Amino acid sequence: MTNKTKLEVYFNKARNLIPSDLNGKSDPYCKVLVGGKKVGKSKKIKKNLDPVWNQRKTFKLKGSYDKLCLQQLSVVVMDWDMISSDDFIGEWPGILIRELPPNKEVQYIGKLTKVKTGAINISFKLITSLEIQQKVEKAKKKKLKEIEKEKKIQFD
User: Fold this and answer.
1) What is the per-residue DSSP string for 1-16?
2) What helix, strand, coil percent values describe the chain, rounded to 5?
3) Predicted confidence (pLDDT) per residue in 31-87, tens digit
4) Which positions make up the signal peptide (predicted)?
5) Is 88 left (phi over 0), alpha (psi -120 to 50) or beta?
6) HEC assignment per residue over the chain
């Protein structure tokens, strides 16, 4: 089965980010990671601790759907620097890809970890081919039948 899985990300906003620059501000942007590898990023917002990206982007994902489902989806918020390397300003530790229902957008609002303050509002939509979606639905139906059968045995 060929993989045609994509991840649509709506970078909405963040709040109370830590300052990283001498001016007491940051130039934040987000990096989206799947299995610890960067799949894409948002635009940067200059001199802001409460950025509003209001940006939607779609990224192609590599690997089979089954392997992708085992991967962690996370977001790292970084401070863009022109001269030196970019600074870490928080991380949303994320979820496993399998927790995203195929072809449905899910919003997450969460505190950033590894920093004192900060929160992010971001949405994800796992775009799958019809073939993959049918496979997921078939697996759900099979699981439901198993549960119903188990319940029936318990009450007989």
Assistant:
1) -----EEEEEEEEEES
2) 20, 45, 35
3) 999 999 999 999 999 999 999 999 999 999 998 888 999 999 999 999 999 888 999
4) none
5) beta
6) CCCCCEEEEEEEEEECCCCCCCCCCCCEEEEEEECCEEEEECCCCCCCCCCEEEEEEEEECCCCHHHHCCCEEEEEEEECCCCCCCEEEEEEEEEEHHHCCECCEEEEEEECECCCCCEEEEEEEEECCHHHHHHHHHHHHHHHHHHHHHHHHHHC
Residue 83 in tokens: 């001269």
Placement of tokens 């590599």 in the chain: 62
- When mean pLDDT is compared across 75-84, 98-107, 129-138, 142-151, the lowest value belongs to 129-138
Distance, in Å, from the CA atom of 128 to the CA atom of 109, rounded to the nearest integer, reads 24
